[in-house]
Amino acid sequence: MTNDLEDNMIDFEQPCPIRDVLDRIGDQWSLLVLKALEIQTLRFNSLHREIGDISRQMLSRTLKKLENDGYISRTIYAEVPPRVEYTLTDLGGSFLKPMNILIQWANDNHEAICLARKNLSQ
Amino acid sequence: MTNDLEDNMIDFEQPCPIRDVLDRIGDQWSLLVLKALEIQTLRFNSLHREIGDISRQMLSRTLKKLENDGYISRTIYAEVPPRVEYTLTDLGGSFLKPMNILIQWANDNHEAICLARKNLSQ
DNA sequence: CTGGATCCTCATCGATACTG
DNA sequence: CAGTATCGATGAGGATCCAG
């Protein structure tokens, strides 16, 4: 009797781990930030340029949330002008492994989803 | 020169496949519904009981969205009283494979995330 | 350069009541 | 049994201005 089923089940009771994760990275920007930092360490304005259409306001909030959950780390250099670098933590890198599989699935099946949406609009 | 990097990148241009997926699945209930249907086909009220604290309103909306994207199928039986069964489609089952990996990651790392949150509140 | 503070808008979600 | 309609609350996200 293995506990495969149990491992695979969602715990409907509080706290729900996957809910914690989805609530944090399910927003509009978190995943884009993580994917940008997966390539390389970046500072605030570099991230802003990289992502493009995010406001500085939302970038700031997103970074703080990701840092609070341990996905990224923030390093301040006491220079003039100030420099702040954001780096993926081990936890963040670990998270991107299963997440990249899901991203790959999304890329592979995007056509099927679009097709399903079109079919119902006929 | 492989295209591994390209496969792994998020397309910042529209439409973004992973955004389509996260927008649909990132809400409060979709994943719970899919996980419930992963076990077995269920009818509306069975799902309602199974998930527990979802309102019929939200269950109805969630089911419709999932059906629209092809994750589940809806079968109506012309009986009295009416019977409607919801089943996972091939696409839905396919989606749960990478998703289950992510769920497993969330379970495994939930403690680390909680720890990160506590550390900052000190 | 790296943000915080404030105000605003809009989509989402819940509660309630109603229908075939 | 299986939903829909309507209304109100809530919070995510954007715009703008200000600060260290």
From TrEMBL, chains A, B:
It comes from the Bacteria. The keyword Transcription regulation applies. Residues 16-114 form the HTH hxlR-type domain. SUPFAM superfamilies: Winged helix' DNA-binding domain. Keywords: DNA-binding, Transcription, Transcription regulation. It holds the Pfam family HxlR. One of its GO terms (molecular function) is DNA binding. PANTHER family: TRANSCRIPTIONAL REGULATOR, MARR FAMILY, TRANSCRIPTIONAL REGULATORY PROTEIN. This is Transcriptional regulator. It comes from Entomomonas moraniae.
